[in-house]
Amino acid sequence: MKQILLLILLFFVLMPSLFGQNYLRGVIRDEKNNPLTEVNIKLFSTKQYPYTNGNDGSFGFPSRLNIDTMYLSLDGYEPMTTALYANQFNVIILKLLPDIRAVKKNKLNSKTKDLEIDQSILLENEGESYSALIENNFVNTIKNPETGFALNVDRAAYSNIRRFINNGMVVPIDAVRIEEMLNYFDFKDSINSNKIECKTQITTCPWNSNTNLLFVNTCFPKINLEKIPPSNLVFLIDVSGSMERPNRLPLLKAGFKMLVDNLRDIDKVSIVSYGGGVEVELEPTSGKNKSLIKKAIDALDASGETPGGEAIKTAYSVAKTAFIKNGNNRVILATDGDFNVGQSTEKELEDLIIIQRKNEIYLTCIGVGMGNYKDSKLETLAKKGNGNFAYLDNIQEAEKVLITEFTKTVYAVAKDAYININFNNRLVKNYRLIGYDNKKNAIQDIANTVAGGEVGSGHGALAIFEIEPLKNNHTNDDVLGELNLHYKNINSDSSIQINVSIKNNPIINIDSANFNLRFATGICMFGSILKKSKFVKGYDLFDIGELVSKGLKKENYLHKEFLILLQKAEEIYGISKKNYKKRKKKNKLLIS
User: What DSSP string describes 100-158?
Assistant: First the structure.
């Protein structure tokens, strides 16, 4: 009898294993207890691979075992093997990879040491798909004399703004990044282009009689095309259904074919497309075979969805197989940014790019289109990939980015570049950095640091501070502050530093300053008005035209185009009654 009872008991113990009645369930989280999604999961009992977990991090699988073994993997995290128990809810924690952990925090565009955050300005972003930005405020120099900002060659904001205005549309506030608007133009006329150099100048401020403007102009040397090391370029081109419009894939195809005309025999090009699937359209091919490369570009057609995450992985893999040591290895991603299949969130894309950039393959992002254009995703990819970001709204812009400024766009001469300034509190009461506004989610973490940027060949970066002088100062000190430029050579991790003393004099009246300073001020004002900045009062779009028109060279298409944009913006945003009367008299903006 006892033997029969033991057999019955053993049967009920083993029955779930024999007939698969167990259910393994649980959740996968990171070290901060946030749910992780799309984790690849392999159950050793079934040998099926991969499962993936749900959007809330949860999972549930049938198993014939009371205790099963699970293998988990996710880009950016340490792979893990763990036991799963059928009689409990399993909570699994994945840890970041060591090289991700060091760079996981949000990085700032600019930073002031020990600066407290004004919680009242943490507003929700409105508009298309742009990262919510917090405009830099005035900072008290006694409390916080030190500030810093990253240098980069990103210039997408200006051409994107131009697209909105040319279509008679109001520009989303978070689409306005003043530093990128300044990057779009060349302000380095008096800078030595054969070496890295910083130059400062102070003028009066046109919108505030109690403040001055400090211009910090940094120029990096231009490398002749024939002296550039061999390039290994991967064109990663979005051919999904959303790209079929004339201002998307057809525009990109025309631009890339122009780029091909400038390739040398020592350069290599590969083409990866994604739309419905990911295809390697062209294996690494010498720039000598231009007709073959152009044929592959011409053959691209738009259809399908957008598996962006998998496409980026493939592009980096192709770039790695053709890697050129000490060469210019770069993926050029061209898309409207609508990653709707695969790794779709910014966080997942960031993790993917961080993993890949350790291979010293840089990333250039080129955005096109409107309506579903995802500026925030492309900006994120470019910054995380140690790269840069441009936006093409027409064929002229494609020519500017991919031909005229080819070396600036695709060949970096410095990385991790940023500037620190320590203001003299005996001369400066308050200061604010114009532009270089931080993302909302980055500024909330005050422990974050400035993320140094990539600087292209021949690039000049102009930054502008509005400073309030300390009245009745009793010092003979003529140094407004100390500037330190930090950067690394592109093929080295050793840091280099250049120190510059910012002289307090002379202070030039902005109306009599040289054209570059007045034009840069006009760009600054244009962006501030579009952003509806609280710092701009009693100054409107017509006043900008008055400021920058003096000395304007009509043969400079970009300068003339800026005045045309101002006139179009007047029709969208309006101007003061005083300037409306002036406009009626002129009919046209000073350039007719």
Answer: HHTT-SPPBSEEETTPPP-GGG-PPP-SSS---EEPPPPEETTT--EEEEE-----HHH
Burial class (CB in 10 A: 0-12, 13-18, 19+), 274: buried
Candidates 75, 57, 20; CA nearest to 352 is 75
Instruction: Name the one residue in this structure whose structure tokens are 């900072």.
Output: 139
Q: Where are the alpha helices (DSSP H) in 125-245?
A: 156-166, 178-183
Residues, the chain? 592
H and E: helices and strands count for the chain: 16, 27
**pTM (predicted TM-score):** 0.71
What is the per-residue pLDDT across 166-186, written as a single tens digit (0 to 9) for each?
888 899 888 899 998 998 888
Q: What mean pLDDT is predicted for residues 187-213?
A: 83
DSSP-derived letter for residue 527 is H
Six-digit token pair at 266? 């020592």
Q: Give the chain's end-to-end CA distance (angstroms, integer).
A: 110
pLDDT at position 227 over 90: no
Locate tokens 């020990």: which residue?
Answer: 114
Closest CA to 226 of 178, 265, 276: 265
Q: Give the CA radius of gyration of the chain.
A: 28
Distance CA 369, CA 349 (A): 21
For residue 358, the Cα-to-chain-centroid distance in whole angstroms is 18
